[in-house]
Protein 1
Amino acid sequence: MENMADKTTSCGWVAFIVALLVSVCGHAESTSRHAPEHYRLPDLGSAADRTLSPQKEAEYGRQVLNLIREYGLLVSDPVVQDYLYHLGYRLAANSDKPRQTFHFNVIKEPSINAFAVPGGYIFIHSGLLLMSDNESELAGVLAHEIAHITQRHSSRTLADMTKVSVPILLGMVGALIAAKGNGHASQAIIASGMGLQQQLAINFTREHEHEADRLGINTLAKSGLNPYGMADFFGKMLRKYRVTDEKYQLPEYLRTHPLSVVRVSEAKNRAEKIHADAIDESPLYAFTKERLRVLTARKPTDSLLYYQQLVERMSPAQQYGYAFSLLQNNQPDQALTIVEKIPVQAQTRLIIDSLKAEILSRINWPVANRLFSSLAQDHGEHPIVLVPWIQSLLRNGQPAEIRKARELARELTVAQPDNPDFFALLAVANENAGLTIEAVEAKAQERHLSGHNYQAVQMLRNVLSEKLDYYQRARITSRIHQYEQLITDRERQQELSRGRRPGG
């Protein structure tokens, strides 16, 4: 029997705590015992709204996202982000609430899990994406989590959880992330929360789970994906992890999304009743999966060994992953040989050409620069092109290249002003150009967008003592005033406890 007694990671416990905020708690009062097909859409009434307003939902969702980002668990790769964004919104557009705002993210975590957070924030563990076999299976999980969001299961849960303080739970999330890798610390932190787990009995989650299944399967079919995708993925997990020995630990997804043979059968029955048009799965799924495999490998050589040990002929997506892995292992010549053999389709051309340009930047910079420039002309301000181009320009290190990197980084921040990763890139470009004040401004904006306004104020106050022109001083003073209004008492206390004082 396969050993599944891997240590529970801190991120797994994070998912558990976040689950108390979301659908998996399922403590909504309901005595309905009708068959799942006859569940009525829930009443999104005032009780939930009073407990957690849409504004509060968005605030808590951003806090969870920022905590995960702060500890380096968020996959910020533009190829992965772009793929998940388009798949997520393809599904969201065909959900029961197509106007709902969503934020789709991948967490660097090998365990099998996915969870939704108030405010439309959906997180997929990298292990879950790698376990899926096709786009419809991955989409089935996303559609399920989308339904949890559209039905506001989290708010309905919190409406009944009168003894639970959401800020305290968020604090536990931060503590658990900070304790990542330390199983004993994680379990000590979680101890006080185990009573809540007992209180929120699994029986109360069933209606929410069935409801999310039903709505999610409909969403799959409307999106041109296989309505069996959800049932297939759930069934695969149930077969793989069907163990009763307590020494084996179930993956997080099964602990937070309880499965049963009956539930999988019901999902298959629903899919059978739906008339699905031709299934249209994107070839980008397989390429993104292989890229994620390389990005989340424990060591760069692990992914290289994986591809070298494949006994069957590599698929185009595996060739892409192999070329990317060779680049990560500083073997650009071999990577170029592989990437030039990959068959190109219209949907995969951009990511293949962008990888080729990145590889060429290590071999023949003038050729790489021309290819990046051509791709940028064809695709505008697309991060898949601009991010590796900026990184290559900075690595080249010549004054003209650094100026170009700054120009492109500024374009990214204008195109996506809410993305902190792009301001971090701009800060590096400014620093390399010797523009210290501009570098601090960009870094402060990154801190602000990441929810660390206290740190942003500190950075900006420190540069006020520098020799600034009138416009710089006015701009920085204005930013300080803007950020100061956003500092929470919780953040202030955290920073003061670390001995940080703005301008101190």
Protein 2
Amino acid sequence: MNQLLKIGMTVQTEDSARSCRVEQFLGGGGQGEVYRATLDDAAVALKWYFPAQATAQQRRNLQLLIAKGAPTFRFLWPLALAVAPGVGGFGYLMPLREPRYKSIVDLMKRRIEPSFRVLATAGLELAHSFLELHARGLCYQDISFGNVCFDPANGEVSIGDNDNVGVDGETGGGVLGTPRFIAPEVVRGEAAPGTQTDLFSLAVLLFYMFMIHHPLEGRKEVAIRCFDLPAMTRLYGVEPVFIFDPADDSNRPAPGYHDNALVFWPIYPQFFRDLFTRAFTEGIRDPLHGRVRESEWRAALAQLRDLIVYCARCGAENFYDTASGQSAGACWSCRQPLRWPPRLHIGRQVIMLNHDSRLFPHHLEQQLYDFSNVAATVAQHPGNPAIWGLKNLTGRNWVITSGEGAIKEVEPGRSVTLAAGTRINFGGVEGDIRC
């Protein structure tokens, strides 16, 4: 690829004429090229548009986004327009993505193997990030593999390609999205990208993350002999059928072709599968009212994190399904019987108390999800490793009522034994331990 900018040259920010040195070519795409650059001794990314893409509309869109600012720090948001003497067109500066982030393409190709906890955290952060974006009257228009990365160690996300973000209801129609992620009504030409179509694309992305498969690719896909534009339009737009639609089995996953979907779908709790079912049945029939909202995904993914249990034999993550009652079943990985650890019920929340489980502010208070602020942790008794407790890491006393009715306080830094029937008043909410 012929590089638009030369390494070592200087571009300037349009607003303040600050100098930015081009350091390294990182790659190119359909709109332009991306470089590593230095601005005020800090590393940034610089995207420079191809001449045909450096339009007045694109400039106005960038100016709007820069003025609004990033919805959250998870977005690699445009910071400033950039121009260069003697070079046509323009570009923009944005934060540089850290190397620890990996593409979801890496997940699909199994180059990374994150835990279910990491996937749930990444999904929660994505749902929250797009909720914040939509709350500002903006729509992403192109949620897909190529625009989202996450840290496979902890699930933190990084969202790029934000220069195509538009105002909901005022998009110019230049960006329709990425094939396979585009909402059916957009595929059919009946609607333009917006917040509602973002919700469909988000559901597709989450399905890919958890099932390693597309929600509409089943037997109908296998029957296609020429996967051309008319065939894609029919599969994803005109006749879309969810592969696990409870009322229509015409597009079930085909063994030998869609094994990922067949393996992963039964692993997850019923409430989580129900959300996907709604997203790709009601959400297709009624795009305005039937789609799963970002806040619903966020709450469901937080609950999914809490329901993880470990197989005592192979260590694989499994899930406690609140719909199945006391039946533990077998590990999906080694097929050996599972045994549930103690669990904490706080209202509708269920938290499985594994050896590494933690409570966070959203468990005890009505706060945003913050996994950096630990409120309690499961810990072994220092004198008897066979006894496990829940250690108070908050700044206030808990009031404990044992199964026999004895009441005592647990100060910060102290633990309450994980015994069935114990009730814990955390100060704002109350929970009970069940075994």
